[in-house]
Hints:
The protein is of the alpha/beta class. The protein has helices at 11-21, 38-45, 55-63, 72-77, 91-100, 122-125, 140-153, 193-201, 234-243, 252-255, 260-270, 306-316, 323-334; strands at residues 2-7, 26-32, 50-51, 81-84, 104-107, 118-120, 134-137, 158-168, 184-185, 206-214, 220-228, 247-250, 279-282, 287-289, 292-299.
Amino acid sequence: MVRVGVNGYGTIGKRVALAVLKQEDMSLVGIVKKTPDYAALQARRLGINVYAPTEDDVRKFEDSGVKVGGTLRDLLESVDVIVDATPGGMGEQYRKLYDQFKVKQVFQGGEKPEIAEVSFNSLCNYGEALGRRSARVVSCNTTGLLRIICTLNAHSPVEKVRAVVIRRAADPKEVKRGPVNSIELDPPKAPSHHAKDVKTVIPWVKITTVAVAVPTTLMHVHHVTLKVSKKLAKSDVIAILEAAPRVMLINAERTGITGTAGIVEASRDLRPRYDVPELVVFEDSLNVEDDEISLFQAVHQESIVVPENIDVIRALIPLELDPTKSIEKTDRALELNKKLW
Ligand code: NAD
């Protein structure tokens, strides 16, 4: 059993912690919370050991009656891997401490690529993370782009990608972010950073991205055009996507679902927290013209990176040398790839 700790118990951290609890080859030693709020109480109720970043924070927890196991340092003494899910940019401040305790380190997409030895996606470069000290699971949008590129690339080498990223304004819990009533070019100047981020994992790909932010909290949507070197028929692309792990095809005619609200509503009926860690591809939007494939896809920003966080732990240790086997283990434990309709 690999002993895992999670530093930061917000949107990503709490999902990764619960996903670790479901794996047969991992144990969750504890999580680090900054504030003794409802989420700390819920973690305690789930039987999760809660730690605080510093001695001062420990006192805050004690004053509010939440039992803690000690500080982050105490947690680091008893784990093999620390998953850093603190707010973007904060991982850099913690990196030296993690090094001091000689633990393997997983960072998130809000950190700069230089923070880790490798930027990671399970379908694209699992092998490059094997036995490394640290890895960075790229952001939600980058993970969505990499899923489609690497899935298709396994069947027909992808020569060029162009993508329009339509970003959700904020996560559902975030009340201070926007836009509330605008479609904002984000950034105004092309290209957006997503193309560069994709290249941190697959430097060989030619890719350009632009992005806008829109007033919604549910999911991101991308329109992606991929030029492939071997022509594929539309039926081939559908068959590839149907068989691929962590990709879910959605047919508007059969399901009546034509957007992110429909996906989330379908998930609400079947899944905890309406998480959709799979990349959702709108089948009806799929167009194949000569060597160009284009489609709309939706990304559930809060959960898409969770399975990659689990696989990367297996790669770093290394617990599993074969990406396919790790993906299968993770997906079985998290009950992924099951149709929502
Ligand atoms: P979040 O704000 O929801 O969670 C961060 C947690 O860290 C909070 O609970 C906060 O209280 C805690 N924290 C703050 N200071 C801390 C400290 N000093 N020590 C320990 N914990 C501390 O953020 P998030 O959305 O979960 O993002 C975490 C990382 O994941 C970022 O790098 C982000 O870019 C990345 N990411 C976020 C999303 C998303 O859509 N939310 C998607 C993919 C990747």
